[in-house]
Sequence to fold (260 residues):
Amino acid sequence: MSDTDYFEMNRMGWDQRVKAHFESRFYDVEGFLAGQTSLREIELAELSEVSGKRLLHLQCHFGLDTLSWVRKGAICTGVDISSMAIQQARELMGRAKLNAEFVCSDVYGFRPKEVGSFEIVYTSYGSVCWMPDLNRWAEVISSNLAVGGTFYMVEFHPIYDLLAGYSYFTTEVPDVEEEGTYTENGADVVAKLATWAHPLSSVINALIGAGIQVERVNEFSFSPYNCFDDMVEREPGRFYLSHRGNDVPIVYSLIGRKVA
Ligand SMILES: C[S@@+](CC[C@H](N)C(=O)[O-])C[C@H]1O[C@@H](n2cnc3c(N)ncnc32)[C@H](O)[C@@H]1O
Fold:
């Protein structure tokens, strides 16, 4: 199968998930509409200066985090491969009386109207595994960023893949599985999806290769999402996973700057 075939499989799978996700307690759309942010403590602490900035949110799903950044004053564009997700994002934007641009596109196909249109490019939890080639991903980030602009990502740590019985290193063919989704109401929303493993070094090196100077990488022993088996909430909103008695690094974040 070609990458195009895998993307089509993933697009259909994500389309299938949108309704259940939108209605789930996991995403808590009601809370968002009542004024709560969907953003979590890590990104709120590390990406604090967004007001008045043009922010590109890659793989924005149905726009909950995008619109939370809008509430913090960012001028946002959200991009996602799923047309159902983008349709739902636009509907949510109307209900929340907020403004953003939502574009249905595969990440690789998203080209800026003008090179360097954004001051911030942002992507989060559960994004990188949908990219077969991180060099192409990093090129899209770089071409969308203005010189001096910030790239920020917060992502599940790839070591989890290894502990869960998958490859840590990128394999020639993606892992294809048919399974329910991760929200509490999603066991019956079965979709076939293809994912690619990427070690931390591949993420960092792809960004460096595309002209993003990596300023900081942080690793966290907790996840703000309770989305893997056997996690324990030791403090409110912090879910930990142990391996042979020690904490697993379950999330990492990266801050980079576009250099000329
Ligand atoms: C786990 S969700 C990301 C949620 C994220 N934490 C957020 O900001 O809301 C993954 C998203 O990636 C999207 N996606 C998967 N493959 C993609 C691709 N090749 N290009 C663009 N979006 C893609 C899916 O449609 C889905 O909405």
